Amino acid sequence: MQKNIFLFCFTLVMATGDPVYAAGAKDIVKDEINSIYWQDTHESKESSLDWYEAVDYCNDLVLGGHSGWRLPTFDELLSIADYTRAEPAINPVFEYTGEDSYWSGTPFSATPSRAWTIDFRTGKTYYNYKRTNHTVRCVKDIRKEK
Amino acid sequence: MQKIVTVLLLGSLTLFGATAKIDGKTGLVWQDDSAVNAIEKDYDHAKQYCEGLVLDGYSDWRLPTIREFYTIIDIARDRPALMNGFEAKIEGNFWTVTTFVQNAEKEAWSISTSYGEAESAYKSREYHVRCVRGGK
């Protein structure tokens, strides 16, 4: 059974500019700065999909009863990189981070056969071929309260 | 001739410091003179160059962090992948002050303005320099 516990994101911002989260929950991380939820499951660590499969994977994902997931933009993905750390160079709120590049939904402007990725071993950013396999961490927009 | 570009980080930008979030905007001021195109330095000299720079009467320049540099990168464009508004638009690798934690003594992060990718490089490499002031 999927746990459906959201982490609370304090509005504190450390000197590095990274958001600070409360620890202790799994599966979904709430990111109030970007107004999105982040997937944080075993598949966020183990998945190996090409870009087209990654798009479909997020579209089809149901997590904690929630559908409507998508690939993060490059800027969203960059916001969780933490250049003060390595292996993984990611905000420590995330429990499941693999040793690979992660897909963004952001296309590479110079050629449509590539898309932007971030390798969370170090934080290196690059435009990989869409037909190569990398890891996926989906996001979902937080619906605005009215 | 405009030599400095002021970039207002508006409320939608949430990647950066507390001031940006609380005030809704914060100002980073970027060097944009011909030296940006002309000069290449190793990391230590790039840092010294910014700290010693006096431009338009200001002397509080510094080498930008990787996050700061990404605020002027526009990856919806390429060659250069640089936001509109700059006069010095040379394509090439630019130093950031952010060291590469796995080899902080010898390596630091650089960003290419051709396409916008960031990679670590040995500090002895001679790269372009665009200093920044303000912000935070």
Q: Any overview of this molecule?
A:
The complex is a heterodimer of chains A (146) and B (136). Chain A is α+β, with helices and mostly antiparallel strands. Chain A has helices spanning 43-46, 51-60, 74-79; strands spanning 9-13, 19-21, 27-31, 36-40, 101-107, 114-119, 124-129, 139-141. The longest helix of chain A has 10 residues, at 51-60. Chain A starts with 8 loop residues before the first strand and ends in a 5-residue tail after the last strand. Chain B has 136 residues and is an alpha+beta fold. Chain B is 19% helix and 27% strand. Chain B has helices spanning 18-23, 34-38, 43-52, 66-70; strands spanning 4-9, 26-31, 40-41, 93-99, 107-112, 118-122, 127-128, 132-134. Residues 9-26 of chain B have low confidence and may be disordered. The chains are: A alpha+beta (146), B alpha+beta (136). The A-B interface holds A 11, 13, 15, 17, 33-34, 74-75, 78-79, 83-87, 89, 106, 108-110, 116, 122-127 and B 14-18, 21, 66-67, 70, 75-79, 81, 98, 100-102, 109, 115-120.
Fold topology:
The complex is a heterodimer of chains A (146) and B (136).
Chain A: E1 9-13, E2 19-21, E3 27-31, E4 36-40, H1 43-46, H2 51-60, H3 74-79, E5 101-107, E6 114-119, E7 124-129, E8 139-141
Antiparallel strand pairs in A: 1-2, 3-4, 4-8, 5-6, 6-7
Chain B: E1 4-9, H1 18-23, E2 26-31, H2 34-38, E3 40-41, H3 43-52, H4 66-70, E4 93-99, E5 107-112, E6 118-122, E7 127-128, E8 132-134
Antiparallel strand pairs in B: 1-2, 2-8, 3-7, 4-5, 5-6
Short description:
Chain A has 146 residues and is an alpha+beta fold.
What would the keywords be for this entry?
A: 146 residues, alpha+beta, three-stranded antiparallel sheet, B: 136 residues
